[in-house]
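Table S7 (text form). Paired inputs.
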Amino acid sequence: MGTCEPLTVAVIGTGAIGQDLVSKIDRSPTLDCRLVAGRNPESAGLRYAESLGYATTAGGIEAVLAAPRPFDVVFDATSAAAHREHWALLEPLGTLVIDLTPSKVGRMVAPTVTGVSPATGRNVNLISCGGQASVPVVHALAAHFPVTYFEVVSTVASESAGRATRMNLDEYVATTGHAVSTFSGVADVKAILNISPAVPPATFRTAVHARIADADPVAVRAVVDKVAEEVRSFAPGYAVVACTAVDDLVTVTLQVMAHSDVLPPYAGNLDIINSAAVMVAEQYAARPERTARTGVSA
């Protein structure tokens, strides 16, 4: 089978999440990073992108808009408020915008649950780190068992919770809870985010609590293990560290270790959402209609 021309991409945001995102894009055979845009000319993220040979700018979204041709994909790794402004500017360009903030503007996507199709639209929202960790599990549990309640509790290290994460706490909780309900069909849900000051830093974990009448521990574990195997196709540090069913309470504890050139292992929260972002872009690159448009033969 032939291959498509790589997608031209730009990254907005040069914090820790943007830096790791650039490193993952650099390893992708189907993504061609043409610009990394931030606001601080002295940011470590811009220096890192420059070290990889990529064009950089401290001109932010304005520099992305000023490019000679629209990018195929723009990754937005800024904040929920900034993304709302960015989308209004990018929408007319016809580019695919992959939103790594909990803005809830675009269609929510979890790669192994939804994939990317024409119906997804041009604005893909990756929910949150807790959403990416939990949605595959809540979706599968609700598909196999009579779930009446979900609670998703994520714990991230303070060291891996940057300024944008702290600014977006309300949006994080609301968007994660909305995603859990949307992808499970369960109305009664709760989402919680803990930022841990522990030393050494706490590894990213997400606990999924579910109320399931007469839950069979063996059947639950089989469903959860299958989900974890699928998620590891793009986030290899994703693991089930505990899965219990006592009376009607099921608890699944998930851990994500970062597999990254720039992140410490405990920063699995950043790793999983960036890995999801890259997979979404690669799924988009492989869509049949894009292959046909570029004249690639099978």
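Next pair, protein 2 of 2.
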Amino acid sequence: MLKEEEVLQGFFAGVCCSMQVFGEAARGQGFDETTARRIASCFGSGMEHAGLCGCVTGAYMALGLKYGNSAPGEADKIALLKEKKAEFERRFAERWGSLECTKMLGGLDPARPEELKAAVERGLFQSVCAPAVCDACAILKELDEE
């Protein structure tokens, strides 16, 4: 399981939140972590528009990898995926107050350089982003064990 310090090191080396969540979950499912991180690389910082948190989009990819359907007529898989997705969203929002990057960062948009700088100066990557990555991974693990 990822540790906050590892997550922070990743952030400052260019490995965004979605890459870390999907990479960690994919590795746990026997999927290549490097490929997973590449797939997730456009989804950090709320898809670089401060929208849906990259922890959430990374988790969606992980849920799809594990529970998603791949052929027509797999209604049972679709139902299970929707159930797991809804439960992930509920737990994450309960812990973080939102699924949206900007709301989690107190109104700052990390896609804007000046607001990203403010987020760094306020220590939000340490107090919000790194713990959110770890929580997203923990929630995925909880869902897998249920």
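The chain has a mean pLDDT of 93.
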